[in-house]
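--- STAGE predict ---
source: upstream dedup step, 1 unique chain passed
mode: sequence only
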Amino acid sequence: MNFFTHIREAVLLTSNFLRANKLRSFLSVLGITIGIFCIVAILTATHSLEQNIRSNVDKMGDKIVYIQKWPWGFGGSYQWWDYMNRPEASIQEYKRIADEGNQDLIKQTAFFYEFGNNTVKSKIEEISGVKVTAVIGDFFEINQWDIIYGRSFTSFENNKGKNVAILGYNIALNLYHGDNPLGREIKLNGSKITVIGILEKQGNSIGGQQYDDVIVLPGAYATRFAKPNTRGVSSSIVIKGKEEIDLKQVDVEVTRIMRSIRKLKPKDKDNFAINKLTMFSESLNQTFGVIDLVAVIIGIFSLLVGGFGIANIMFVSVKERTPVIGLQKSLGAKRNFIMSQFLIEAIFLCIVGALVGIVIVIGLGLLASKFSDFKIFFSMSIFLSGIGISVFIGLVAGLAPARKAARMDPVVAIRK
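--- STAGE serialize ---
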């Protein structure tokens, strides 16, 4: 009997016994399904989160720095009290950087400030708690905010502070219930403003920001509602370096100019933060590494339970099939053939459990993508890892029962 014939007969015998014991097979598969589901689901979630963040970074480019009051904090050691008395970034500082910055390093600059708790009205709807983003300079180009309907601000509207606005996707949808808002007037805190554009739907951006729910105004006009460097207003200067240069060069150049503007002495610490999009990418590996480790630990415990369940079921199966094993051995079946039946059965059960767990993950992932803005990224390597783990569990769980079956005395086995 050649190898493939040997395997084929072992598979046929295994499938017959599994069909004859459907409930037992289902209970055996359940533990493996839960374990593989835990591992694959959490790994898929972290992989998707990582890919969503990286896609945001890639969309904007990795040559962007933000000058802000607060540094972006990662981890639990954020010392906020050290930054409370820092000044916010100012329009004057933005202009100095735009004028004095090394043009061989800096491609574009912009200034923006944000303030919340605004009320906006159309003729058919009113929304409270709206955030306003006021912009100056190359804001849309740097941040890759695409306008799907209408247009951006002209230089005249920016410089003269015209009462025009660009609406976030959700704001436009909620104010006009799907009708075209271009050219219509809204009231922001009682002031009339003409809608000239609608932003493309973005979903949650880096850091959890929701830019579909903002109203964008020219910086010069927005000062009638709130001014930079006042309470409740956060200000930022954003700078994009040229593609061919190292971001560190932009960092050094911006730090030099800011320290000069704020008249800091050599021994003084910076009273501003230089934040980079690359900080998110750099923190991903450590953060997701911990999450993945937790997923593996949870999955291992589930798989251990499932593995013990498979082993117990296999021992029961060996006991029930003792006369059959005795008959096979008396007809000349070798130990390897007997062992292969039980190993294949254990591995098959584990693979089925893994596939069911993976199918559940895919189904839930597709539902999550359909009913939320969070895009799920499936990874074949994660799926194959789950199947590989299940094969290993099946091999380990089935080894002892298989060896017990292979070592039976055919005469004693037939009598039982």
